Amino acid sequence: MMAKQRHQVDPETCKGDGICADICPENVLEMVDGKAAAMEGRLEACIMCGQCVAVCPTESLQMPELPTENFQELARVPFGYREFFDFLKLRRSVRVFKDQPVERELTGKILKAAATAPMGFPPHSTEVLVIDRREELEYLLKELVKEYTFMVKGFSNPLGRVMIRLSVGAENYQVLKDYILDVARYANEAYHRDGSDKYMYNAPMLMLFHGNRRAISYEENAHLVCHHAMLAALSLGLGTTIIGLIPPIVDRSKVLRKRYSIPKENKVMTSLILGHPKYRYKKSIHRDLAGVKTI
Ligand SMILES: Cc1cc2nc3c(=O)[nH]c(=O)nc-3n(C[C@H](O)[C@H](O)[C@H](O)COP(=O)(O)O)c2cc1C
Predict the structure, then answer these.
(1) Residue whose CA is closest, atom 7 of ligand 1?
(2) What is the distance between the alpha carbons of residues 199 and 187, in angstroms, rounded to a whole number?
(3) Domain ranges of the chain
(4) What number does the ligand 1 atom closest to the CA of 241 have?
(5) 8-70 architecture in CATH?
(6) Pocket lined around ligand 1, Cβ cut-off 6 Å
(7) In this structure, which residue's CA is closest to atom 28 in ligand 1?
(8) Which of 12, 197, 226, 266 lies at 20 to 30 Å from 240 by C-alpha?
């Protein structure tokens, strides 16, 4: 059987500069008689990253599986480190929003930018569910309160604690006990007191990031997509917060998975609330990493 023709080289324009071969992470391309050529034995190793096409100065290379319109002229970096750092400093977790929806046009821009995130191997394994209907967000809030009430109750008796530990494993049990329990207790009390939302902070939009468990690096991929979305939202004047309390609940809930049509093989990895921030921060905050060593 013929191997799939993934690379088409135009011998008329190929100058044989070898740049495509040099940049290919899988050594799929080589120079043969002064022209780029895909090596039979390496074809299956091609990860379809498209770097060879993107780098060719004479546009002599095409990959039929990657449409030409996927490749757009690149601008030079439009800012320096200083501007980039100033931009990053603007990002804070926003939990107070204006009573204003996130425009669909902005959502489209955010998702387009999010899709530029790297992934373990192309194509993307991450799927995004966007919830922006108030009734749908309220439904989810009720489910979160219900599930976390169940968890808090479980922690209140020895048998419940054993069951939780068996169900989530020792490491997650400790995280639940040390970090989540009090937060959930407080959020549930606030909800029962006056309907306050301490899970999603009444944000007008929630994005859920989930990915196929069988895809390589599906967890990291989802976090990177979420992070790109977060920065894109910031560039559009929106505020966001990553919400770690939501994914495990949605992931374990048959009702929510069905409601959101999340495929059986997908795991819900992370979530992001978005909205127009009610307040502007006037100061940045300096933080250091937990540690840095150079050897
Ligand atoms: C993985 C992850 C999970 C988070 N989960 C929550 C959450 O459930 N609720 C919340 O209010 N903030 C959550 N945050 C936001 C953090 O509290 C916030 O990033 C941190 O306090 C630093 O503040 P800053 O983002 O304003 O710089 C989460 C952040 C990350 C990275």
Answers:
(1) 243
(2) 7
(3) 8-70, 89-281
(4) 15
(5) 2-Layer Sandwich (3.30)
(6) 92-93, 95, 241-245
(7) 242
(8) 266
